[in-house]
Write a structure and sequence with these properties.
The protein has eleven helices and eight strands. Strand 5 (174-183), helix 8 (185-197) and strand 6 (203-207) form a beta-alpha-beta unit. It has helices at residues 8-18, 24-32, 42-49, 53-56, 110-121, 142-150, 154-169, 185-197, 233-236, 239-249, 275-293, and strands at residues 66-74, 82-90, 96-102, 125-129, 174-183, 203-207, 224-231, 253-262. The chain has an eight-stranded mixed sheet, sandwiched between helices. By secondary structure, the chain is an alpha/beta fold.
């Protein structure tokens, strides 16, 4: 089932489900109660929105252009003091520009690992941290992952991701330049890393992430490329104030909104995926990093 076939009411329910405002059973129950005109069932639409990671893989972990492995590292101030991430390097001796890839609100699932591999095929040393690793790691399904992540102390989780950024920036294979991209919750993390890291972040590309506090925007020194979905009321409500603050602070930025897209349009494991918009956004992301991290 493709995105145009899905009722907007089902998309709205799915957004609530994805962001932990209802359980899967409630999501499917409410979808089943929607009456459609012209046949079909909203329950089938809802079930079609659930991710299919194996079918969505773009870059194999055995791709000969990259080398991928899991790495452990210290994380002072985090959930447990230790972290684990998925490190992917291009073949060759480097050094390479470093890119942090931050997951959504459910831990390091197969889609985000695939995004890290995509970055590596473009010449970047990519680290995708698993914020759930201190409590056992991504459990293999998003429902449990979402529950686990919501139970974490948010400040400690952010510390783990901040430490991950520092680890990949200082990695022996890194050229010392750091970029960061993330999606949904990860998009907010990128905005917040821009605040906290200041000039230590060289470029940031948040995808549909909430803006940082207005009073903190002046601390941002990195150029930003900020990606929005058109149909994303909750996140887009923070956009006008963010842009005003970025202008006032003299931050270099681009903002792109992709017509007709839903929150999560870059994630090709569900029908929210918009192939044309996702390709354009990713091409822009890679070009932006190559410009600022070379």
């Amino acid at each position: 089932m493709k995105k145009p076939d899905i009722d907007t009411r089902v998309f709205a329910l799915y957004d609530d489900y994805c962001h932990g405002r209802m359980e899967r059973r409630e999501f499917l129950k409410r979808a089943a109660a929607i009456t459609l005109i012209g046949g079909g069932t909203a329950l089938a639409m809802a079930e079609a929105l659930l991710p299919r990671y194996a079918e969505a893989q773009m870059i194999s972990f055995t791709d000969n252009r990259i080398k991928a492995r899991y790495v452990d590292y210290d994380s002072p101030g985090g959930t447990s003091g230790k972290m684990r991430g998925y490190l992917v390097q291009p073949t060759g001796s480097g050094p390479f520009p470093a890119v942090l890839v931050v997951h959504e609100n459910r831990g390091l699932n197969p889609h985000i690992e695939d995004v890290a591999r995509r970055a590596a095929t473009n010449g970047f040393l990519a680290l995708a941290p698993d914020g759930l690793s201190p409590v056992g790691g991504y459990p293999g399904n998003d429902d449990e992952g979402r529950t686990m992540q919501s139970a974490l102390n948010p400040e400690k989780l952010f510390s783990d991701l901040l430490n991950s950024a520092k680890v990949v920036k200082s990695h022996p294979l890194s050229n010392g330049k750091l970029g960061a991209t993330g999606f949904c919750y990860g998009g907010w993390v990128i905005n917040q890393l821009a605040v906290v890291l200041g000039g230590a972040l060289n470029a940031g590309v948040p995808f549909y992430g909430r803006a940082p506090k207005t009073e903190d925007v002046a601390k941002i020194k990195a150029p930003l490329q900020i990606q929005y979905a058109e149909n994303d009321e909750r996140v887009n409500a923070t956009q006008p104030g963010y842009e005003t603050a970025l202008k006032a602070a003299g931050v270099r930025y681009e903002m792109h909104t992709y017509p007709g897209t839903q929150h999560g349009f870059h994630n090709n494991s569900t029908p929210r995926y918009d192939e044309a918009a996702a390709k354009l956004a990713w091409d822009r992301t890679m070009a932006f990093f190559k410009k600022h991290l070379s």
